[in-house]
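Lab meeting tomorrow. Look over both lines:
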Amino acid sequence: MSQANDPPKQISEDFYAGGQPDAETIQHLAEQGFKSIVNLRSPNEAGTLSDEQQQATDAGLEYVNVPLSPGEADDSLMAKVLWKLEDLPKPVFFHCGAGARALALALIALATQQGLNREQVIAKAEEIGVNVEQPHLKSFLES
C-alpha cells in the first residue's frame, strides 16, 4: 500500500495514516506539526524500526505502540488504541507495515470521535480507499 516516503493519508484533521516510517520520516512528521505516533506493529514484524520510540521522543512526538495482528481483529486491543488516543495530542500519525491496519484504526478513531453510524463509516472508507473487509474495520462495523 504505502511506503515510508509516501505522504501520510489524511483521514481527518486529527488522524492520518500510512506505512512504516523511517527515522527521517519521523523527523519530517514532527516538522509538519504532527504531535503523536501510534505504531500498530509488533516488534517482531519484519521491517520495524527498532528504535522508533526513541526516534519519536527525540523528535518531540508522543509515542504509543499497540501491536495489532494484520489478519485478525482483537476488540480489546482496538479499544486500548482508542483509550490511549484520548490522551494523545493531535494530529496523530497511525502506522503499520503497509498502512492497511493504520487506515482502518484511524477511520475507527474518527467514527468513534464523531459518532458516525455504520453507513457513514462505510462511505468514508470508500472515500479514503479503506477496504471494509479489513479485519479490524469489519469487526468494528459488525459490533
Q: What stands out?
A: The chain has one domain: 9-142. The first strand starts at residue 9 and ends at 10. The domain at 9-142 is CATH 3.90.190.10 (Protein-Tyrosine Phosphatase; Chain A).
